[in-house]
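Form 12-C: Joint structure prediction
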Amino acid sequence: MSDLLTITGARRAFVTPEGRAVPALDGIDLAVHDGEFVTLLGPSGCGKTTLLRAIAGLEAIDAGTIMLEGRDLTRLPAHRRPVNTVFQSYALFPHMTVARNVGYAMEVRGLPRAEREAQVADALAKVGLEGMATRKPSQLSGGQQQRVALARAIVAKPRLLLLDEPLSALDRNLRQAMQIELKDLQHRLGITFVFVTHDQDEALTMSDRIVVMRSGRVVQAGTPREIFRRPATRFVAEFIGETNLLSGTVEGGAAGPILRTSGGLSLRIPPGTPPGARATAVLRPTDFTLGAEGIAGTVTRAVYRGADLHLSVAPEGGGPTLGAIARDNALAPQRGARVTLGYDPAAIHIMEGEG
Amino acid sequence: MRLSLGLFSLLFFAFLYAPLVVIIVYSFNSNPVNMLVWDGFTLDWYKGLFGIGERYLDPNQRVIYLESTPQLIAALKNSLTVAAVTTSFSTVVGTATALAVARSRFRGRGFCGGAMFLPMMMPDIVLGIGLLVFFSTIGMQLSLVTIIIGQCTFLTSYVFIVVQARLAGLDPRLEEASADLGASEWVTFRKVTLPQLAPGILGGGLLAFIISMDDLVITYFISGAGSQTLPIFVFSMVRRGVKPEISAIATLIILASVIVAATGLWLRARGERR
Amino acid sequence: MSPRERARIVVLLAPATLFLGVFFLGPLVIIAVYSLLTPGLYGGVEWTFYHWNFGRIFGWADGIMEVFQPVYLRILLRSLSFGLLTVLVCLTLCYPVAFWIARLPQRWRMLFLFLITLPFFASLIVRLYAWLLILKPSGPLGMAFTALGMEPPELLYSPAAVILGMVYIFIPFMFLPLFAAVDNLDRALVEASADLGATPFQTFRKIIVPQTLPGIAGGSVIVFIPAVGNFIVPDILGGANGLMIGNLVEQQFLSSRNWPFGSALAMVIMGVVLVVLVTFTSRAAKAGAVR
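Section 2 - Result
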């Protein structure tokens, strides 16, 4: 797969009202392949939206280059970039009908009316909004507005579609439906998507590749599975879903290496980490098998979550409380119950150092 | 783009302020013949206004402004009297109307709100001659009283609009909370609504005062022989021709209005911060 | 509604209703009546119906249909065009500045907004007097021409001087509603337009202007209304060519003493204003309903 978009050394600083320069992009290198669905993920203020706006040309960068298909876009104004954006607030033009909103990109390029109408109808059909063409945006529901914004951005067949938290204003059920739909649409259209979100579930569900950002830098880039199973840092591990992090010193053992935490817990870990080293083990709550041989502890809290229970377990040897999942049935442990948390050492991901 | 906008804005502000600067500079120019040719600094025109200029003791010099000094003082007094009465009246009536319109539900409420805009939108000259014909038809002598009545018609609207805007910005839940805590309607009004509303009432009153002091067109038609106000006095002087003394009066008026306006804005800013 | 609440509303509304009913509606009704009365020979009126006061404004005086004398009509049209020009110049001056101020940091915005409203508080007559000084042949502009060895052009007592004066005094009226609209403009819409390939000019025409239209319309209306009936500015800065309908009204009342004709002229001004206001509010209501 060839690279469609290449960003090298992108830097951008904002000046606060107090006169301090705060880097929003602190040296970003990123390549997006043709046809890929890439998600920029991070907490608010990590620079993901600034990066997206820099690609769109809505924000200038102080240093670095942005190349699209080998063409340098860095100094090109937004309206001359073959890139379209779905805005977080949708930014639908309130004084125009749905059809004129969707046809705007072609209107400003001076395409004849008939051609425009055909393409608008086509785009509206793609997002399931047939029959809405003559309405004003204010007459649509949030979900419908979202689709108009999408239709408007894809109608001109951009090389690259940028989506700035487009689903954040929708309610939970609609959002989940739209996640699937967006992914399908991307497959059908074959357009490359760069998607910004702070919602890790959304990122895991939709992406081919996730780029985790923090403080204007890329912390880790990889497939959703890589990011989830093999986080590069403590930050990534904690940001992507609930997790148990256990830090300690690696010791050699007959059955394989053991991580001994400061709390006095011993954990069998996969081979490969030299004895004596400091290391951090990453265990997802779903990695524990309740009742199997492993870490013994007491349930300090059991939170009902519908299909299952989220347990907080205080290990007997001391150390930090561990999160685990129990099926909700008659055997489900209650608060105060003694449980054992079994685990498969091979499933444990080890980060060198404190993570 | 940004730079050219900034440059344009700079010229815009120069356009706004250059005329005022010209007046102020020339009020200190001692050249009595062509006041636009600088001839050194003088306070004579200011002294002349109050009849204390040495230049005016010489019978061969122009003495016209020495004679008109009492008229100036009288005009100023008239203006202040009118402004004091109209401000009080329009503040009370405008606030009462705003309270009724903003805080009660009754049929014709929207109409009342809209109708209160009319006196403000009516062209001055129409209202001015209308009042003139009205007073002469009912046989009322033109005097300070007619000026006061005439000005109150549109000043009430101004106060209404300012106070209503403030009322609309108030959280009605504060009043509900007060009622919930056991305060009667009157206590709620006095202890919750009124303190919140005070900056609006003050602002509306100040605006009414400034507009009253400056009103020319309506007052022009309904002021009698002995009831000249300051703007009318200056207007008739300007009509008679350019004189350096006018610049001196104008400078004093500018100074006074800047002080009043700045005080008003400061009070408003303080009110908003609270 | 409880009787108590009803009583409260009556007490609160009574003063304004009574006062404005008598002293605002009264005068309007009376000039409406006067405009249809016969002018007396030596001032005053005769209480008989006479509609040629209006005929005279539009060119046919006293029912003589053969003679068309558009003196007054011409002045009416001139007033309308002066009003329109004033609106256009105010708009052109204020629009860019509104954008500039809207993008400033909060503290500076407050300062510049204050600076724009401040001259409004300096007396009207004082501000016009300043232009009298500046436009005089011996004024700074005239002197500049003389210094360059040129004949100073006739600046004062011209239509241009009248429009200049009106622009100067009405700028705050235009600026504030315009600024409110520009400040409310959703920047995401401008960005979306650029993102979809519109040039800056296209974005301006298709997005920015329609989105700030309420402010443009509001500012235009509240500048046009006082401009069209103005008589002070043409009185001080305009010569014979700068005479406006307001001056005609003033003459009828204070020198010619033809009150019915003056009332008819005032009714025409009021008619123009009402047409503008009704058009504006109905359009605004319609736009509000769609949005």
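Section 3 - Comments
The CA atoms of residues 202 and 264 of chain B lie 8 Å apart. Chains B and A do not touch (no CB pair under 8 Å).
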